[in-house]
Amino acid sequence: MYNLRLYYSNLKRNEHSYGKWDMVYGPDGMEKTQTDRNPDNYKYKSNLFHHTIYEMRHIYGDVLYQMFRRRHRLYDNFGLYVVPTSLVSLFLLSSNHLFFMSSFCFSFFASIARVLSKTEEPKLDEVWMFDTLLNHEILKNHLKKDSFYVIDFNMEYENDSSNPLFPEYQTDLAKFFNTDNNCTVGFMKLGDLETGSIVHVNFRTMPYSANHYFYADPYLVYDMSAEINSKGNVEKVQIVDPKEVLSSKRPFVPLY
Fold it and tell me: Which residue, 72, 97, 119, sits at the end of a domain?
């Protein structure tokens, strides 16, 4: 979304030159700062090896970065003991029967899917967020459809399962499969060119399932408030009431 942390290597984001690992660069190795009027000076070179490294760094580098940053979410008992033991056991037995080989392959790819799911960047429904803010009876006077813009955004998982609102995650079974409650805390800071207002939106999400078997909405917003600064006048507004949401919806506890 607007989270620059999606890119693990922001060091070269603002540089105006091509490095040796960029896929296409000029004969001199530097990007030109002035328009070259010479029609014959158009030669560029491409290196297949450099191109491959460039693609791997920008495609898989971010995935590895997210895995490293949220590796603590993999330290539950199921991930630390059950998964490695099962994989090693099935691998050792895979040469004896096709069943063990098939089980090992299934468990191996399922483990990769679990790691990616646990460490992925949390996401928010951007369309729902903007639609809610722009149609709110108070916020619509400060944020206009054609003139608002996003200043900053951040969203991250809670550190543990100690949130008293969700006792479902404080059971031994839930803690066996989860190190936290799969809930997130975030904010979005918006401004408006027409009204000059600054709106700071704080929100909390929880995983929700309509049938208790799989995610219906992994990031359901159950609490959202906004702080409006309009020409020095500060006003706080509750947009989504947690008591109202939690009275009819409870968080989903993944046991895998």
Answer: 119
Report the DSSP beta bridge partners of residue 217: 208
For 53-107, what is each residue's pLDDT tens digit? 777 777 788 888 889 999 999 999 999 999 999 999 999 999 999 999 999 999 9
For 121, half-sphere exposure in the C-beta direction (CA atoms, 13 angstrom radius) is 18
- The two tokens of residue 97 are 């029967």
Q: How far is CA 20 from CA 13, 49, 52, 123, in A?
A: 15, 11, 12, 34
Which residues span the domain enclosing 174?
A: 126-246
Are residue 114 and residue 135 in the same domain, yes or no? no
Judge whether 177 lies within some domain: yes
Mean pLDDT, all residues of the chain: 83
Please, are residues 144 and 121 in contact by the beta-carbon 8 Å criterion? no
Q: Read off the DSSP letter of residue 122.
A: P
CA separation for the pair 58, 143 (Å, rounded):
35
pTM attached to this predicted model? 0.75
Q: State both tokens at 9.
A: 């290597």
- How many domains, in total, are found in the chain? 2
Q: pLDDT tens digits for 143-189?
A: 998 999 999 999 999 998 889 999 999 999 999 999 999 999 999 99
Out of 88, 119, 150, a domain closes at 119
The DSSP secondary-structure symbol of 93 reads: H
Residue 238 placed within a domain? yes
